[in-house]
Amino acid sequence: MSSTQSKDQVNDADLIVKHIDALIRLFMEEQIALDRLTRNQQLIALASAGLTTADIGAILGQKPKNVSSSLKKAKDASNKKKKRQSKGEDREKNEKQGAEA
Predict the structure, then answer these.
(1) CA nearest 39: which of 49, 28, 23?
(2) Which of 73, 76, 72, 53 minimizes the C-alpha distance to 63?
(3) Mean of the pLDDT values across residues 77-83?
(4) Which of 3, 15, 19, 72 has the fewest CB within 10 Å, making it most exposed?
(5) Among the listed residues 83, 74, 22, the one whose alpha carbon sits nearest the alpha carbon of residue 48
(6) What phi and psi values does residue 36 have, to the nearest 5 degrees?
(7) pLDDT mean over 79-91
(8) Burial class (CB within 10 angstroms; exposed 0-12, middle 13-18, buried 19+) of 97
């Protein structure tokens, strides 16, 4: 394989990655516009898919450092919400058990 072919393959791969990033960005923006996902949910979903903060930043047009900070805040907020929901479910369960007794 010549070095020209190798460079062409790298350029093709870079182009494919840029197109995929653009498609993901469009999909995510659509999800926000349709109120299906918040920005925090986007960050968590992309990170859960295995993307690095650099990848997420490239997709969302943010610096990796900002993505990292936003992602931490999003995860913290998500965990707090889950804890509140869990406490509410426990309370309901206890109320049902008390009513049955």
Answers:
(1) 28
(2) 53
(3) 83
(4) 3
(5) 74
(6) -90, -30
(7) 77
(8) exposed
To which residue do tokens 């898919």 refer?
49
Question: What 3 state SS string does 27-65 have?
Answer: HHHHHHHCCCCCHHHHHHHHHHCCCCHHHHHHHHCCCHH
Q: Where is 1: in which H helix or E strand?
A: none
User: Cα separation of 13 and 2, whole Å?
Assistant: 17
Residue recorded with tokens 């062409």 = 8
Residue with the two structure tokens 């010549």: 2
> Rounded distance, CA 61 to CA 55, Å?
10
Q: What is the mean pLDDT of the chain?
A: 83
Which DSSP symbol is given to 2? Answer: -
Residue ranges covered by each domain of the chain:
3-100
Q: Which helix (H) or strand (E) holds 101?
A: none
Largest CA distance in the chain: 81
Its pTM stands at 0.60
Query: How many residues belong to the chain?
Result: 101
